[in-house]
Every structure is written in C-alpha cells, then in structure tokens.
Amino acid sequence: MTTLASRRHPVGLAVGIGVAAALALALFTGQYLRKSWPFSRPVAQPHAHVAEPAPAASHAGHEGMEGMPGMAPPGYAPVTVDPSRVAALQLTTVPVEERDFKRTFRTVGVVTLDETRTAHVHAKVRGWIDTIHVDFTGRKVSAGEPLCSIYSQDVYSAEIELVSLLKGPSVPSGQDALQDAARRRLALWDVPKSEIDRLVSTLEPRRSFPLLAPRAGTVIAKQALQGMFVDPSVELYTLSDLSRVWVLADVYESDVPNVSVGGRAKLTIEGQRAPLEGQVSFLAPTLDETTRTRKVRFELENPGGKYLPGAFATVEMELPMGRGLAIPESAVIRTGTRSIAFVAHGEHLEPRELKLGPLVGDSYQVESGVSPGERVATGAQFLLDSESRLRATSGQGAGHAH
C-alpha cells in the first residue's frame, strides 16, 4: 500500500531539481548579459569605493545651471563606457575648436540694363511721324543722330512766327526779347539747335524737324512707325549703352545681415564658359514682400556685348558668420527643444546641454555648453542617449571606481 508520505518524496525531488535548473539558467544569463552590455556597471570590490548615486534631477529647477561643466541636464546622467567595447560601438571623440565660420551662399540672378546708361525717347509735342531714320531694334546709334522726323502744327507755327519776327522792322525795345522767346520755345520742344540756326539764317520754315538721340547706345525697344500719331505720353525709342550691365540677384531675408557692399562673389552667366568675379555695388533699401528677398546689384564691364541682358546668372558668395566654437553635427543629439552632447573624460561621458548657433556646413556654432579643447563623443549617439536617460530614470547615477 502506497502512503501519503511515500508520494511526497518524488514531488519534493522534482521541485528541487527545477529550482536548481532555474538558478543555473539565471546565473548563466546574467553573466552573458554583463559580458555583452557595452556600458560597465560599477561593482563594489574589496578595495574599491563606489560613489553614492545621486538623482539626475536633483538640481533641476535652478536657472542657468544647464550646460555647465559637471552638471548633467535634467533627465540625463553621466555614463561610463567599457573600454573594451569602444571600438565595437564605433565611438569616437573629436575636440571642440574655435574657428572662423564661413558659409557658401548660392542664389540666382539676371543680367539687366544699366539704368544709369539707359534713355527713353519721347516727343514733347503732338504730331505725326513723317520719316523713320532708325528703323529696327538692336541698331547702334550715336549721340545726336536723327531717330525720326516729326510734323507738328505747333512747331511749324512757331517757326513761322520766328521768321516773321526776323523779317519785321527792327524795334530796339522788345524785338530781340520776342525773338529770344521764340527760339527758347522751339528749343524746349526738342527742335535741334542746328535746325533753329538754319531757320534764322535761311528764313525758310520746314514742315518737320528731326528728333535726335539723347545718348549713344543700342536701340533696346522701338515703337515709332511712319505716319503714327504721337504725343508726349508715347515712348518712341529706348536706348541703352551695353558696354556695362548689371546683374541683379535675390538674397533671402535670413542672409541679408551677412551681405554688404563690397562683398565678393563668383558669377556664372548662362552661355559663358568661365565664371567671373563680381563685387556687390548696391543693396536695395527694401525687401520684396512676396518673395521675402532683397535685391543685390553687381556691375560688370561688357566689352563686345557678350553679356546679354535677360540672361540668367548663378551667384555664389562666401558669407562670414563670425568666430566661435565648432562642434560636429554628428555629436549633437536633438531632443526637441534641447540639444545634448556627451563630453568625454577618459571612459566617462558627461552629458551637456548646448546653446547652438547656426549650422555651417557639417558643424554647429556653439554659444555655450562646452569649452575649447574638450572632446565630444561622435557615434553611438542612440546608445549613449538611452543609457543616460535610463540611469537618470532609475536613479543609479554614475559610478566611479577609485
């Protein structure tokens, strides 16, 4: 007969075997995890002292403490990396250096006419175009060259009046004044001085008078047609000296403070093989409200007219951004409103909160948080961030063996 006591011995034996197996498995797993975990866990040795852990947020709430050496930002704690795992983690450090920051700025522009060398030609009287002398766009003209001839009833009547004054009896008082007034009226209507002198000498009025080019240049636009009625509001010709042109480029609002008169730039004009050097000659006094850009002007000598108005141009400038501390972009952990970097002290990594300036190339300009000569960690950023947050959350702090 089997008793209750005899049945308990096999059960107790089985339970004991199970507990022993579980302990062995836990011991083996713990040893494996400790060997594979990259961050060292300080263990109290007979001759070692482990620093008392401090909560990571013990200094939280004190203004101005973030980013100071030796003071971890809230939510972060220092970590210690096992030296044997540094290579496997691809963890490297680079020094914080002070240098001059320059940023390459690229924008687009267009070749335009030099406004100071451009003239618009209008008739100052009402009349009709009798003859066209310059009859196509693109023709080069000289200063004083006839562009067209205009018949005007007002001018013709004034010429007849001047001839009658010249033919009339000489009256010492007032006669010369009337003649001078008639001459000035013709001159104000842009009747050429040569035409007035001819009229005085021959006393023969002409039906039309020539409209002369006010400056030398190239005909950029032409609306004058033979027989067309004109008045002072009609623009007949546009003339421009193309021996010098402008390049107008757009500078975005954020880059305006870094561009000044005299700044150098490399200009590449479509249709030209080699780029050329240019200098900022003028900055527009206002911003374009639609594009939020400011116009920048470059003046170019244009011998032979090789730079054609209307051609696109690419503008490249080196903008000075000032001098400051540089930290690689790969060393910065962006956590929304904060920027964190880990400063290396041997195998110990200290989290610092940074105040960053602009990103120039692959480096940030640092305003505060690190000092020149310190080394910051690059690589393994995810592991460092996770371990530092875990230590701060669990209240383990950082252990330092002595």
How would you characterize this protein structure?
- The chain is of the alpha+beta class and 402 residues long.
- Among the domains are: 105-115 and 242-321, Efflux pump adaptor protein, beta barrel domain (Elongation Factor Tu (Ef-tu), domain 3); 123-240, RNA polymerase II/Efflux pump adaptor protein, barrel-sandwich hybrid domain (OB fold (Dihydrolipoamide Acetyltransferase, E2P)), CATH 2.40.50.
- 21% of the residues lie in helices and 35% in strands.
- It has 5 helices and 21 strands.
- The chain has helices at residues 4-36, 153-167, 175-188, 193-202, 381-394; strands at residues 79-80, 92-95, 97-113, 118-122, 127-132, 140-141, 146-151, 208-212, 217-222, 229-230, 235-240, 244-252, 264-269, 276-283, 293-301, 312-328, 333-334, 339-345, 348-360, 363-368, 375-378.
- The protein has a 6-stranded antiparallel β-barrel. It has a 4-stranded antiparallel beta sheet with strand order 4-11-9-6, with no helix packed on it. Strands 8-7-5-10 form a 4-stranded antiparallel beta sheet.
- A hairpin with a 2-residue loop joins strand 18 (339-345) and strand 19.
- The longest helix has 33 residues, at 4-36.
- It is rod-shaped.
- It starts with a helix and ends in an 8-residue tail after the last helix.
- The model is unreliable at 1-11, 25-38 and 40-68 (pLDDT under 50).
